[in-house]
What we know:
Layout: E1 2-5, H1 10-19, E2 26-29, H2 46-61, E3 65-74, H3 93-106, E4 113-124, E5 127-140, E6 156-158, E7 163-164, H4 170-176, H5 178-191
Helix pairs in contact: 4-5
Amino acid sequence: MKLLVATTNPGKLREIAGILEHAPVELVSLDDVGEIPEPEEIGLTFADNARLKALYYHRATGLPSVADDSGLEIEALDGLPGIHSARWEGSDYAVKFRKIYELLDMKGKRGSSARFVCRVALADRGEVIFESAGVIEGVIADTPRGDHGFGYDPIFLYPPLGRTTAELDRDLKATVSHRGRAFEALAVFLKSPPNGRW
Ligand code: IMP
């Protein structure tokens, strides 16, 4: 069974492929299905956007399609950058990090609590047939650290391991991360769907 992983983010794709390695599906990426314009992510929540993307790519390709929507919520910034994480303050992460530290310093809260959130949706036969969620709780690191992962990983400190998620290799990050937890639930569903098929 083919499963389209509907993301244009190479960092996410690597992580998802690792987590679904043993699921009974042949993963197909957007590179394998020809040019499809990206949908506008107009949802107001991570869950809305995950559903919207999964359905959009399922309709465009006819393949069962899984999409995730994820982001970083910083408590002292009232949940920013949230669902706008990818585009908030542009696409250069050094600039984004500087802006975050500037805003946090103004509030005297550089080490604010923060969480990564991930919602996953799987669409097939014209509808969303599975959804899951994952969260990882942490704090904003004093300074950016680490070269693994992508996006905001260098500034997200995971206290139980005393490291940022950019200091964890892919497999270790997957065991603790928001995306790891949400896609593990998908892997369980794919291995044993409730009605014997999906
Ligand atoms: P999406 O592609 O619309 O879901 O946007 C996700 C954005 O959230 C990414 O581009 C990153 O900026 C951020 N993000 C989500 N998950 C992670 C993660 O695991 N590490 C670092 N940044 C993440």
